[in-house]
Write a structure and sequence with these properties.
It contains 19 helices and 19 strands. With 461 residues, it is α+β, with helices and mostly antiparallel strands. The mean pLDDT is 97.
C-alpha cells in the first residue's frame, strides 16, 4: 500500500543540475511519520534509487554541498578525456565490465578533478545516493554492492573497488568505503528521528540499493531462462548470470555487468525508454494539451502502423530543447515520413521502442549461456499493454508483464529476507509470482514486425 509519494526534481545550482538530498531526506521522514499515523508498524526500512550519483562528506561527517545529477552537462566528453589522459578505454572496460556512459561516477569524478571542484577537494569520503539517505536516517555509513557496481569503479570479479582508476587521476583511493551486500542491517533510526516519526529505533536495511537490482529481484521467473526489461524513463534490458561476461564482443556492444542479489551479475544494456514520450507530454502541457495515459495508448493504437521509426538511443534524443522537433528532424534526415500529428508521433515512439528491444535481445541471445524463452517486463512501463504486445510481436517470444511496482516489491522482499522471512532469491520470486497479478502476451503479426525490423536495422547504431 502506497502511503506517501513525492516529486524528485532536479534543481539548478551554480550552473549545474543537482539533486536536493535534504528534500529527499525530509520527505522520507515525513513518509515514515505518515506510516505511523496510518496505523502501520513497519519492521524495517530499505532505500533504493537510480545509479551513479553520490554525495561528499567532510571531515566532520557533514554532507558537503548538493550532489550533481547524472544529466548535468559537466561530464560531456569526459570519458574520451579520461581515456586519453588517464587509462585507455579497453583497460577501463576490461577492469569494470561497465557500459561506457558519460555520467558514470568515474567520469563525474574526473570532470570534478579537472574543474578543480571545491567539493571534491574538501571531501573525506563519498556515499552513493541510497547510502547517503540511509546515513541521514541512521548516522551509519555503508557502501552497498549493487549501487557501487554502477560507478565504473568496481571490479565485478572481485566485487571490490579498483582504486587505481581513481589514483591515476589524482583522486584519493579510499573515497568510497568497504562494500556490504544486500540484506545488511545498517543500523536504526537516530534517537531524534525515532521520536519524530513515532516509530522508535526502526532498523534500516541495505537492500539492493540500485533500483534496477531491486526490480530484477522481483522478476517472477521460474528458472534462469529469461531476459528482463525494466521499463520506465530508462529501459534496461538484460539477463541474470552467475559470473560477469567481459569480452571484446560485450565491449563492442557497450554492455554492462552490474551487481545483483546473491552475488549474481546483471548483464544489461541501458536503452532510452519512456523519457522520449515523457518529454513530448511536457511540451504538449505547455500548449495546454493534457492527455490521460489511456488516451495516449488509444491514439497510438488508432494510428497507421510502421510509418516511421527512430533509434531511441540516438544522441539527438538525450536532452534536446524540443523532443518533438528532434523526432521529426531524425525522420527527415533519414528519409522517412515525418509524423504529422500527435497520434503518429506516439505510434512512432512505441514501435521504435519495441523494435529497439528486439535488436538488443538478439545480442543477448548470442551472449546468454542458456536459451531465452521469455521476456519479463517490469516497472511502470509494464502497464502499457499496447507496448507489451508490440514487444512480443517484435521479439517473437512471450512477454510476461508485471509487477509494475517491481522496485518497491524487490526492496520489500529483500527486507523480508534480512528479517529471516524468506531464505533465497528463488523463494522470493516464487512468492511474488503467486501474490502479484501478471499478464502474458504472445507474439502476433510476426512477419510484419520482422519486415519492419529489416527496415529499421540500418537506422540503429
Amino acid at each position: 500500500e502506497e502511503v506517501h509519494r513525492f516529486d524528485n526534481r532536479q534543481v539548478r545550482r551554480n550552473g549545474h543540475d543537482c539533486w536536493d538530498v535534504e528534500l529527499l531526506s525530509s520527505e522520507l521522514v515525513r513518509g515514515l511519520a505518515l506510516c505511523k499515523e496510518a496505523g502501520f508498524a513497519p519492521k524495517s526500512v530499505g532505500i533504493d534509487t537510480w545509479g551513479v550519483d553520490f554525495v561528499f562528506l567532510g571531515e566532520d561527517g557533514q554532507i558537503l554541498g548538493i550532489p550533481h545529477a547524472y544529466r548535468d552537462q559537466h561530464t560531456a566528453g569526459a570519458p574520451e578525456e579520461y581515456f586519453e589522459k588517464v587509462l585507455p578505454r579497453k583497460e577501463v572496460y576490461d577492469i569494470t565490465g561497465i557500459q561506457i556512459m558519460n555520467f558514470n561516477s568515474l567520469y563525474q569524478l574526473y570532470a570534478m578533478k579537472r574543474d578543480n571542484s571545491s567539493l571534491l577537494n574538501a571531501a573525506k569520503e563519498a556515499l552513493f545516493i541510497p547510502d547517503a539517505l540511509s546515513y541521514m536516517l541512521t548516522g551509519k555509513k555503508v557502501v552497498e554492492y549493487t549501487i557501487a557496481s554502477t560507478s565504473q569503479i568496481l571490479n565485478p570479479r572481485t566485487k571490490k573497488f579498483e582504486t587505481c582508476l581513481l589514483e591515476k587521476m589524482g583522486v584519493k583511493a579510499n573515497l568510497f568505503g568497504d562494500i556490504v551486500m544486500p540484506g545488511y542491517v545498517i543500523g536504526t533510526l537516530t534517537d531524534a528521528l525515532a521520536a519524530e516519526t513515532g516509530l522508535g529505533k526502526l532498523p534500516v536495511v541495505a537492500v539492493a540499493g540500485h533500483d534496477t537490482a531491486s526490480a530484477v529481484a522481483a522478476v517472477p521467473a521460474k528458472n534462469e531462462k529469461f531476459a528482463y526489461l525494466s521499463s520506465g524513463t530508462w529501459s534496461l534490458m538484460g539477463i541474470e548470470v552467475k559470473d560477469p561476461i567481459i569480452t571484446e564482443e560485450t565491449s563492442r556492444l557497450n554492455i554492462t555487468n552490474e551487481g545483483g542479489v546473491e552475488g549474481t551479475t546483471r548483464l544489461l544494456k541501458n536503452i532510452t525508454g519512456m523519457w522520449i514520450l515523457e518529454q513530448c507530454i511536457k511540451e504538449w502541457r505547455k500548449e495546454a494539451i493534457e492527455y490521460t495515459y489511456p488516451e495516449i495508448v488509444k491514439m497510438a493504437r488508432d494510428a497507421a502502423p510502421f510509418q516511421s521509426f527512430i533509434d531511441p538511443d540516438d544522441e539527438s534524443f538525450a536532452n534536446p530543447p524540443s523532443m518533438i522537433k528532434a523526432i521529426k528532424d531524425f525522420c527527415l534526415r533519414t528519409g522517412q515520413k515525418v509524423p504529422r500529428n500527435h497520434s503518429e508521433l506516439i505510434r512512432c515512439i512505441f514501435e521504435s521502442l519495441a523494435l529497439k528491444y528486439k535488436d538488443i535481445l538478439e545480442k543477448f541471445r548470442v551472449l546468454a549461456p542458456f536459451p531465452i524463452e521469455k521476456l519479463h517486463i517490469i516497472g511502470g512501463g509494464s502497464k502499457n499493454r499496447l507496448l507489451d504486445q508490440f514487444t512480443a510481436n517484435a521479439i517473437g517470444i512471450p512477454v510476461v508483464a508485471g509487477p509494475s511496482e517491481a522496485t518497491a516489491i524487490g526492496n520489500i522482499m529483500l527486507q523480508a529476507r534480512a528479517a529471516g522471512c524468506v531464505n533465497s532469491l528463488q523463494e522470493m520470486r516464487d512468492m511474488i509470482g503467486e501474490a502479484i497479478e501478471i499478464e502474458t502476451f504472445t507474439p502476433e503479426d510476426t512477419d510484419a514486425w520482422n519486415a519492419a525490423y529489416e527496415r529499421i536495422k540500418s537506422l540503429i547504431k
